[in-house]
């Protein structure tokens, strides 16, 4: 091969290398441009386009409303929407609460039927029409051995016969003695109560086994049963050795009728008794801190009242509510974590004469009267009529009071 031909081949090789380099650089920049196009294409593809008058594409920002020039108008619209949403939530919450209460009442009534809980004839008759609204249900806690106490109440502040029915129909006030069953079902104690109920028709029988250490359980069962049978604003518990002025009690509760969750009574905070063998001993005293501590504020057990929402809460949660040794402490503990209003009204715990008598003469008639030393009226069978005569509001007051 000649020198000339070798020079020509060398020149061609040099040119090929230059073109290869340029081609590589071109491919690199082309790849970069293509990658950038791929990343931005999905966003661009979603943007709607239209043709303008010149035949060119014009990007349209669909779904984006122009920002109003008037900032105040926009703020007003937002506040209005927030207000409407808040109102809708409140309405929905109230509806759900009402449905829950109705469901709990229906469930409790169904359980009573399935469990075969005996109900007095007058309650069975009134059951289909108990959707009417009552002011209050007054449950008088009693025991098998308290026949004479019940008779003392019947002969004083608790209307009997047609007057009791009139009280329910005209004043919306239900009054019943509350008792469960004996450990021996159908025994002599139960038969005695059944005979007494046939004569007076003023008992509310609970699916509960009676016993002094079972008062907390009885309280739960009472409220669950009462809220299932009667739709009332308030549910009251009172002991059978306490004197009560019914009209004054009704007027007192009426002042709190518009409040949703009310717990009314004489609020106290007694000592937690750790010593065994003493009355009101608290086996779970260690839960309340060091020895010598006191209980949280709660209503004394002689008489207290709770609103329907709280009674329904007890009915729904009765299987998980903890029971302490003392019934009034147990009830107070169930409301500790709730948004419930505690109302301390000292007229619910007046003393017997002359205390309640002096207060009545001063125009401050007591709701309930008893002796603190006896946790009720001492020797109530003998003294109930005396207390009623000296501290009672008078029968005419009850029938003339509008609730």
Automatic annotation (TrEMBL):
Membrane topology, as annotated: Single-pass type II membrane protein
Top EC class for this record: transferase
Top-level taxon of origin: Eukaryota
Keyword entries, A-Z: Glycosyltransferase, Golgi apparatus, Manganese, Membrane, Signal-anchor, Transferase, Transmembrane, Transmembrane helix
Localization (cell): Golgi apparatus membrane
EC number: 2.4.1.-
Any one annotated GO CC term: Golgi membrane
Pfam families in the cross-refs: DUF4094, Galactosyl_T
Main localization (coarse): Golgi
UniProt cofactor(s): Mn(2+)
Pathway where it operates: Protein modification; protein glycosylation
A molecular function GO annotation: galactosyltransferase activity
Record-stated family: Belongs to the glycosyltransferase 31 family.
Protein's name in the database: Hexosyltransferase
């Amino acid at each position: 091969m000649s020198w000339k031909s070798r020079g020509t081949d060398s020149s061609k090789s040099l040119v090929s290398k230059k073109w290869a380099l340029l081609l590589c650089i071109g491919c690199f920049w082309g790849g970069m441009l293509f990658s950038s196009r791929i990343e931005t294409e999905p966003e661009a593809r979603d943007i709607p386009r239209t043709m303008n008058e010149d035949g060119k594409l014009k990007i349209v920002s669909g779904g984006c409303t122009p920002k109003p020039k008037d900032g105040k108008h926009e703020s007003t619209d937002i506040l209005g929407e927030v207000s409407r949403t808040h109102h809708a939530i409140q309405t929905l919450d109230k509806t759900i609460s009402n449905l829950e209460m109705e469901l709990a009442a229906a469930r409790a009534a169904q359980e009573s039927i399935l469990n075969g809980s005996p109900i007095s004839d007058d309650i069975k008759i009134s059951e289909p029409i108990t959707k009417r609204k009552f002011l209050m249900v007054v449950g008088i806690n009693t025991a098998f051995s308290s026949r004479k106490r019940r008779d003392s109440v019947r002969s004083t502040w608790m209307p009997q016969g047609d007057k009791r029915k009139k009280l329910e129909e005209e004043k919306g006030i239900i009054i019943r003695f509350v008792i469960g069953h004996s450990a021996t079902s159908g025994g002599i104690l139960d038969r005695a109560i059944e005979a007494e109920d046939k004569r007076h028709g003023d008992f509310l029988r609970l699916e509960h086994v009676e016993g002094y250490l079972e008062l907390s359980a009885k309280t739960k069962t009472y409220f669950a049963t009462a809220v299932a049978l009667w739709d009332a604003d308030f549910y009251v518990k009172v002991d059978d050795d306490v004197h009560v002025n019914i009209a004054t009690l009704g007027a007192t509760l009426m002042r709190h009728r518009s409040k949703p969750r009310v717990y009314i009574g004489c609020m106290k905070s007694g000592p937690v008794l750790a010593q065994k063998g003493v009355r009101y001993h608290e086996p779970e005293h260690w839960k309340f801190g060091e020895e010598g501590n006191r209980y949280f504020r709660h209503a004394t057990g002689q008489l207290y009242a709770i609103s329907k929402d709280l009674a329904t809460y007890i009915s729904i949660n009765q299987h998980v509510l903890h029971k302490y040794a003392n019934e009034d402490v147990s009830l107070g503990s169930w409301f500790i974590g709730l948004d419930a209003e505690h109302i301390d009204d000292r007229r619910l715990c007046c003393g017997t004469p002359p205390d309640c008598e002096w207060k009545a003469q001063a125009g401050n008639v007591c709701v309930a009267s008893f002796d603190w030393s006896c946790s009720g009226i001492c020797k109530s069978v003998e003294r109930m009529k005396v207390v009623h005569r000296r501290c009672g509001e008078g029968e005419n007051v009850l029938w003339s009071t509008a609730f």
